[in-house]
Specification:
Blueprint: E1 2-6, H1 17-26, E2 31-35, H2 36-42, H3 50-54, E3 59-64, H4 73-90, E4 94-97, H5 109-128, E5 132-136, H6 146-156, E6 161-166, H7 167-172, H8 177-184, E7 188-193, E8 195-196, H9 207-210, E9 220-221, H10 230-240, E10 244-247, H11 254-281
Parallel strand pairs: 1-2, 1-10, 2-3, 3-4, 4-5, 5-6, 6-7, 7-10
Antiparallel strand pairs: 8-9
Organism: Litchfieldia salsa
InterPro entries: IolE/XylAMocC-like, Xyl_isomerase-like_sf, Xyl_isomerase-like_TIM-brl
Domain Xylose isomerase-like TIM barrel: 49-260
Length: 282
């Protein structure tokens, strides 16, 4: 398993990229997921990039952005090219986006058709660059339910389309994340890992709250202390696929929580490997 931190976790902190990379390496993380805003502000700076990050023993797992599907095709293609160039600069072939700004049930067939056409255009463009578009499973998008996500994959029908499986949001939709993972497994390229103390607190992850410096953080909890059973989920997932996942922490005490969650995940993986070795010897 390769584990990332997200630079979005430091969105309200005054840390340099150098400090984040140094800290991530010191805490045994493997990769860094670059938030699109941060990636664009760094641009194609000749100092920062793939080689610079590799010098820390780290890689870029993904560029997480929000491609402007509501804009004109010309604007959308321009933004896609900018992100494609940035992804190359940082040595990743994964670009994350959301599809739409309304839930699948609230999206008309005409709106869905227009979104699908734009996603196809992006996939075709990225495919030529050897890159992938990762659609995130997320409320108020076309990937808000298991059924709509599968339908989206079938409708696009393109090898560049992949899934960023947000475990919490899949659970939020009312399905078992383990069963959903098994069904979507051929299309998953990344996981977002976060948890909540109660289903009643899920609104804390609404964009208008979670991105606000003064927003509530009530209900955000470390990975193994919430409603989603990550011990079960990770145990089942690492058995069947190579896992690349990001700890997507939006709450307070960023370094402490990420350190603790990272340590607990590595301990779990070590236990699974030991058990596997023991079973093999038997």
């Amino acid at each position: 398993m390769k584990l990332s931190i997200c630079t979005i976790s430091f969105r309200h902190h005054l840390y340099s990229m150098d400090q984040i990379a140094h800290w991530a390496k010191s805490k045994q993380f493997d990769e860094i997921e670059l938030w699109g805003v941060h990636a664009k502000n760094l641009g194609l700076n000749s100092y920062y990039g793939k080689e610079w990050l590799n010098a820390y023993g780290l890689e870029t797992s993904m560029i997480s952005d929000y491609l402007p599907l509501e804009a004109s095709i010309e604007t959308m293609i321009k933004e896609t090219q900018i992100l494609s160039n940035i992804a190359k600069h940082w040595g990743t072939n994964k670009i994350r986006t959301f599809v739409g700004k309304k839930g699948s049930e609230q999206t008309t067939q005409q709106e869905r058709s227009e979104l699908l056409e734009k996603i196809r255009i992006i996939c075709q463009k990225l495919y030529l660059e050897g890159q992938y578009l990762l659609v995130e499973t997320h409320p108020n998008t076309l990937a808000d339910t298991q059924a709509s996500t599968i339908k989206l994959i079938q409708e696009i029908d393109h090898p560049a389309l992949r899934i960023n499986f947000d475990v919490l949001h899949v659970w939020e939709s009312g399905v078992n994340p383990v069963e959903a993972m098994k069904e979507l497994r051929p299309f998953i390229s990344h996981f977002h890992l976060k948890n909540i103390s109660s289903r009643n607190e899920l609104s804390v992850f609404a964009p208008e709250n979670v991105y606000a410096a003064s927003g509530s953080r009530e209900g955000m909890v470390p990975l193994f202390q919430g409603e989603v059973n990550y011990r079960e989920f990770l145990t089942e997932t690492v058995k069947t696929m190579e896992v690349h996942g990001s700890l997507e922490w939006f709450g307070h005490n960023v370094k402490d929580v990420l350190t603790s969650d990272g340590d607990e995940i590595r301990e779990l993986i070590n236990q699974l490997n030991v058990n596997k070795l023991y079973q093999f010897k038997i």
